[in-house]
């Protein structure tokens, strides 16, 4: 399937592990937003911090089961020409929504429509599965992702201030749960 002139999306194949291990999924973090329901991301208060690089440490084996048929999920890879540049892992969640377990784009391919194309494929997959919408989670220090989800029609539906406290008690990272219900348009 192709969803834009440049980005080609295909089911993950044998190249998935090498692509993940060779990609740069890190991101620059420069602050923590104070999320608010029913307010645009641009209007959230941002507390600036000393910038640091966050490495998401993606493990290709974590979702390997979804590369097999009839597992309730799928892994799609995005390609620009002959280079794999992104992926999305989607599954059927207990609440009957498509759940984006992981969405990642290599740093070299950001702002080229790769993530949006992957989200378009998730929507297509969810509709084919007869699911009423999509949900996913990101953090309040990943504002580019928050802005993307907002542009793609997702709404903030949940805020969990404690989710990351067990990893780092001093963390100000907050889990943000985003939803796109197809009945909403």
Automatic annotation (TrEMBL):
Residues 36-184 form the N-acetyltransferase domain. Pfam families: Acetyltransf_1 (PF00583). It comes from Pseudomonas coleopterorum. Coiled coil: none annotated. PROSITE patterns: GNAT. InterPro entries: Acyl_CoA_acyltransferase, Bact_Acetyltransf, GNAT_dom, Streptothricin_AcTrfase. Keywords: Acyltransferase, Transferase. This is GNAT family N-acetyltransferase.
